[in-house]
Amino acid sequence: MRLRLSAILALGLLVVLATAACKSDRSYANKPDDGYDLAAMSLSAADLPAGFDDARLPDHVFDNQQWADVLGAPDPQAKQAQLDAQGRIKAYVSVFQAQKLGRILSITSISTLYKDVKAATDAEKQYACGVPVDDTTPLDPFAVPPLGDHSTGFVSTQDRGNGQAFSDTNLCFRTGRIVHVVQQTTIPGVEDLALNVRLANIMLKHVNDTFDGKRMPEPTSTGTPDAGGLVPLTPSANGTATGQATPKATVPATATK
Known about the structure:
Blueprint: H1 5-22, H2 38-41, E1 52-54, E2 61-62, H3 64-71, H4 76-85, E3 88-98, E4 104-114, H5 117-126, E5 139-141, E6 150-159, E7 165-175, E8 178-186, H6 193-211, E9 242-243
Antiparallel strand pairs: 1-3, 2-3, 3-4, 4-8, 5-6, 6-7, 6-9, 7-8
Helix pairs in contact: 1-6, 3-4
């Protein structure tokens, strides 16, 4: 993949901005399972660039039985048992579709609650952050800025019928025992990493406000400005794609907390 100087500079700036935004002494302490307001942590239509509509899902909350159906597993009961064993409890999902055909087809935010921090960490590192992707689909990692307790990113490309391939660009970050994902669906080759980073920072602010007991303000606009130019995906030097936030100092994307 060709790497341009402008892409390096753009990603570097995003890392600095995201790191500064992450500086906090906040602790994502454990609460009872019903004590997490996953809906308040989700992206809303007001957070997105102009030109996206809320898909208005009939139900935003997916337990393990429902998620096994979303995954389209040949044996849904076996898949549900696997999700149970991984410590997955439930997820809140919001989907936003483009109003007209363009480079980005849809944007999805997912917040998945796990039974403990270890299960959430395993989900981020071993189970594709809990996103609906076939177990055999290759994951192409890319470097991400530090967000929350830990962050990672990868692209998955799947054939969704009629021989048409689509790419999902996934930026994941963990806060305690919740794994959050901003997923952007495009045709291969036009992924907009800068937009994923911006939306992940907005989502993290919603998460922090929720933990701090702050109410979200009423939307005052229909969305953020359009993302502008594309930024090519940038693999990290060692082939991984992780970032660890620190509350004390400005650090590169691969720093540890």
